[in-house]
Amino acid sequence: MMKLLNTIKKYLFITLNIQKHIMNLVLLIWLWGLTTDAEEAFVEGIRIKPDSHEMLCNLSIIHMEKGQLEIAEKFLEQANEIAPEDEITQTCIRHLNQLKQM
Prior knowledge:
Elements: H1 2-31, H2 35-48, H3 53-65, H4 69-82, H5 87-101
Helix pairs in contact: 1-2, 2-3, 3-4, 3-5, 4-5
């Protein structure tokens, strides 16, 4: 039983690290100017891991850059429900509110 638990822990650690690396790769794609590809990757990531407030925030930023503030707001509402104390989520919300006042 202990061996099984250790294997599960190791698998979870590897899985979490892979998810972080994948998100970093998608961020690089975005920085290279491939916004549509990055957006599609984040949407797929959310389909696989719907509780990822990080990916929801990143999607909101993409939509803010496109001027699609209502769509950005929907993603941020979801992110805020998942992680209301997250600093990045709150920063994105403040930025969106500033854009809405312009």
